[in-house]
Every structure is written in structure tokens, then in C-alpha cells.
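To whoever picks this up:

The parser on our side crashed when reading a file containing two proteins. I've narrowed it down to the boundary between the first structure block and the second sequence. Both blocks are reproduced below exactly, byte for byte. First block:
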Amino acid sequence: MPQVAVQINGKTYRMACDEGQEAHLLDLAQRFDRYINQLKGSFGEIGDQRLTVMAGVMVTDELVEMQRKIRGLEAELADLRTGQGQSGDQDEKLTLALTRTAERIGSLSEKLKSGI
């Protein structure tokens, strides 16, 4: 099992991962480190454990918000699918909804890529 050395809050941690996941693990660690640095910028040195817990809560909050948005998009898509055939312009409505959904997913993806 490969091991990767990641840097978080100026400290190096060796972590194991599945084969081929090394770059992904490094990216995750860098994203988490950005949360830590954002908190340090806002609150100063308040202790490693507290910074880590606060960053974990921030990441979890972001995850829950993204899951909520995805559930909403899935419900919207399901509503459109169940309404198919009820009117002549249903295909147009579905295409428009899918386009809006794709745009929202793209926006969420960009937010996740930026790390914050």
C-alpha cells in the first residue's frame, strides 16, 4: 500500500492510500490545509486541535450544503421525468432543466476545485 507525506498546518504526516490515489490524497490534504490557513488568518494561533476541529466542521458544513443542493436537483429532475408526456413542450422543459442542472453542477464543481 503506497504512503504519501502530506503537509497540514506546517506539519508532515505520512498517510497510506490505495494504489493510484496518491495525487488525490495530496490534493485533499492541500485543500484541508487551506481551511486551516483561512482559520489561522481569521483567529490567529488558537491551538492545533481547535483549528483542526473547526476546519473539519467547515468541510462538513460545505459537504452537507452540497448534498442538499444535489438532492434538490435530483428532486427537480424526478419531477420533470414523471411529468413527461403530459404536455407537448415537456421535452423542452426537460432540456432546460438539464441545462440549468449542468450549470449548477459546474458551479459547485468549481467551488470544490477552488477548495473553499
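<<boundary where parser fails>>
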Amino acid sequence: MIESMHVLAVESAASTGGVGILGPKAQVELLTPLGPGWGEVLPKLVQEALSLARLGWEEIGLLAVDIGPGSFTGVRMGLSLVKALAQVRGLPVVGVRQTEVLGLPWAAVWPGRVCVWIHDRRDYLYMAWVDPGRAGREAVLTFSQALPKLREHPQVLLVGSGAQRFAAELREQAPEVVLAPEPFSVPRPLVLAQIARAKYNGEGSCDVLALEPHYVHEEG
């Protein structure tokens, strides 16, 4: 169990990313916009978060990283940083999907179905259903393909960047679907840390060398 140590989480799968530290002595979260040329920002945020938390590396027991789906460059940037830190510091790593970061907190409290839509820059959506404790497999769909699937279930709560991208269309064509508030469309480092800690306590560490981005491809 890792409850007595701190988790350091790096989130870079979306347009807003950051670093979080979660543990018995400190809870810190730093967020920043991400885009071209921002690769040097995340290592600086790691150091800043440690400084704000007043922690040394010896008090970090686990590293967490969002492996996607999401920004191709962002996911690889965060994963490269975490893998380097793991090897230099000798720390275990847990990879978490963005679908889990966005959907699992809602699935624990929402009485109906929870669905995640992550917007791809080509106007495709990564869509997955999330149940308490488990996020399903993502599918790559257009809006017109994904919308009927939402309407098959009552009391659907939709979360993610795709929900915000198509908010106007959803309110017009599927007003029965509840959209999570916009701030919850961004995966948060502290939520990533919480999920990674639970995964580590239940399943152990990932193989750092084998850990790769979670890419989702169109079927057919």
C-alpha cells in the first residue's frame, strides 16, 4: 500500500495540463495551457509543485501519467517525462486513460449512465461508457454516429471536451442528455493521482519500458 507516500501525477493529454501531488502531507495542483513549444513547461511544474508541497523526491512513492486518448504530442510529452523520472528516481509508474480520469468520478455518484466524449482535432470523438470502477473501451465516431448511442439510454451524463465542442448541437438534438459543467471537461492531475494510487494498490506498477500511449483507431 502506498497511502503513506505521495503520488506525483503529470497530465498532458488535453489542451490544459499540469502536475499534481497527492499524499498525507500535501495536496498541490498546478495547471497550464498546453500546445506547441510547451514541452519545457512540465518539468518546471514538477519542480514547482515539489517546492510548494515542501517535499523531496524521497517522499514521492509513485508517478502517474495520463496515457490518452488525447493530444498525440501532449500524451507523448507527458509519458516521456514520467518515464525519464521513473528511471532516474527509481519510482514505480501507473498509466491511466483520460477516459478514466474524466469519467470515473462521475460514475461513482451519477444515478444513470456516464459517457465520455473526447474531441479529436479532426472532429471525430473518442467515445466510451463508464461504470463505477471501470471505463469501457473507446470507439472513434463522428458526432452523427455517436449521438444515437447516447439516446439509447436514460439519464445520461456526458463529460469531456467533445461534450463542450458539440454542446449547442446536443442541447438542440438531445436535450435529455445532461452535460457536465465545462470545468469538468479538463482531466485534472489530482484526479489522475487518486485513480493511479487505487490502481497501484490493487494491481501494482506498470512496466515502465513497455508503457506506451493509448491510441484509438477507427474501425473498418
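After patching the parser it read the second block fine. The chain has a mean pLDDT of 94. The longest helix spans residues 72-89.
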